[in-house]
Amino acid sequence: MGSTTKVRIAILGSGTGSNAKALCEAAKSSESAFSVALVLTTSSAAGMCEVARGENVDLEVIPASVKGEEFSTKLCSLL
User: Fold this and answer.
1) Nearest to 53, CA basis, from 64, 62, 65, 61
2) 8: closest CA among 50, 58, 47, 44?
3) What distances in angstroms separate CA 68 from CA 3, 8, 35, 75, one per listed residue?
4) What is the structure's pLDDT at 3?
5) Distance, CA of 76 to chain centre
6) Cα angle value 1/56/19 (rounded, 5°)
7) What is the CA radius of gyration of the chain?
8) φ, ψ for residue 14 (rounded to 5)?
9) Which of 13, 25, 49, 67 has the smallest number of Cβ neighbours within 10 A?
10) Model-level pTM?
11) DSSP-derived 3-state class of residue 40
12) Which uninterrupted H or E stretch holds 61?
Protein backbone atom coordinates (compact mmCIF):
# COMPACT_ATOMS: atom_id res chain seq x y z
CA MET A 1 0.00 0.00 0.00
CA GLY A 2 1.27 3.50 -0.83
CA SER A 3 1.65 6.12 1.84
CA THR A 4 -0.71 9.06 1.99
CA THR A 5 0.64 12.54 2.57
CA LYS A 6 -1.10 14.22 5.48
CA VAL A 7 -2.42 17.75 5.16
CA ARG A 8 -0.41 20.14 7.34
CA ILE A 9 -2.61 22.42 9.45
CA ALA A 10 -2.04 25.48 11.62
CA ILE A 11 -3.98 26.05 14.82
CA LEU A 12 -4.82 29.67 15.63
CA GLY A 13 -6.09 30.66 19.06
CA SER A 14 -5.40 32.28 22.40
CA GLY A 15 -7.02 30.02 24.95
CA THR A 16 -6.17 27.23 27.33
CA GLY A 17 -5.12 24.87 24.57
CA SER A 18 -7.73 22.16 25.07
CA ASN A 19 -8.72 22.20 21.41
CA ALA A 20 -5.09 22.40 20.29
CA LYS A 21 -4.29 19.40 22.49
CA ALA A 22 -7.21 17.43 21.05
CA LEU A 23 -6.11 18.22 17.50
CA CYS A 24 -2.49 17.25 18.28
CA GLU A 25 -3.67 13.97 19.79
CA ALA A 26 -5.94 13.24 16.81
CA ALA A 27 -3.08 13.98 14.42
CA LYS A 28 -1.01 11.19 15.98
CA SER A 29 -3.43 8.55 14.72
CA SER A 30 -2.35 6.64 11.64
CA GLU A 31 -5.91 7.18 10.41
CA SER A 32 -5.61 10.97 10.65
CA ALA A 33 -5.61 12.92 7.39
CA PHE A 34 -3.69 15.83 8.95
CA SER A 35 -0.64 16.76 10.98
CA VAL A 36 -0.24 19.87 13.12
CA ALA A 37 2.52 22.00 11.61
CA LEU A 38 2.10 25.25 13.55
CA VAL A 39 0.40 26.74 16.58
CA LEU A 40 -0.15 30.49 16.31
CA THR A 41 -1.38 32.76 19.07
CA THR A 42 -1.47 36.41 20.06
CA SER A 43 -0.53 35.70 23.68
CA SER A 44 2.66 34.11 24.94
CA ALA A 45 0.75 33.29 28.14
CA ALA A 46 -1.90 31.23 26.32
CA GLY A 47 -2.13 27.61 27.42
CA MET A 48 -1.81 26.50 23.84
CA CYS A 49 1.84 27.63 23.93
CA GLU A 50 2.60 24.91 26.45
CA VAL A 51 0.67 22.41 24.35
CA ALA A 52 2.74 23.30 21.29
CA ARG A 53 5.99 22.95 23.24
CA GLY A 54 4.88 19.63 24.72
CA GLU A 55 3.91 18.29 21.32
CA ASN A 56 7.08 19.60 19.60
CA VAL A 57 4.99 21.69 17.23
CA ASP A 58 6.32 24.99 15.86
CA LEU A 59 4.96 27.92 17.88
CA GLU A 60 4.63 31.52 16.76
CA VAL A 61 3.34 34.47 18.77
CA ILE A 62 2.11 37.55 16.96
CA PRO A 63 1.39 40.16 19.64
CA ALA A 64 -2.22 41.28 19.93
CA SER A 65 -1.05 44.83 19.25
CA VAL A 66 -0.29 43.82 15.64
CA LYS A 67 -3.42 44.59 13.63
CA GLY A 68 -4.82 44.84 10.12
CA GLU A 69 -2.52 44.51 7.15
CA GLU A 70 0.55 44.01 9.32
CA PHE A 71 -1.11 41.03 11.04
CA SER A 72 -2.22 39.60 7.69
CA THR A 73 1.29 39.94 6.27
CA LYS A 74 2.87 38.20 9.28
CA LEU A 75 0.25 35.45 9.21
CA CYS A 76 0.71 34.81 5.50
CA SER A 77 4.48 34.66 5.90
CA LEU A 78 4.07 31.84 8.44
CA LEU A 79 1.64 29.83 6.38
Assistant:
1) 61
2) 58
3) 40, 25, 28, 11
4) 62
5) 14
6) 85
7) 14
8) -150, 25
9) 67
10) 0.86
11) strand
12) strand 58-61
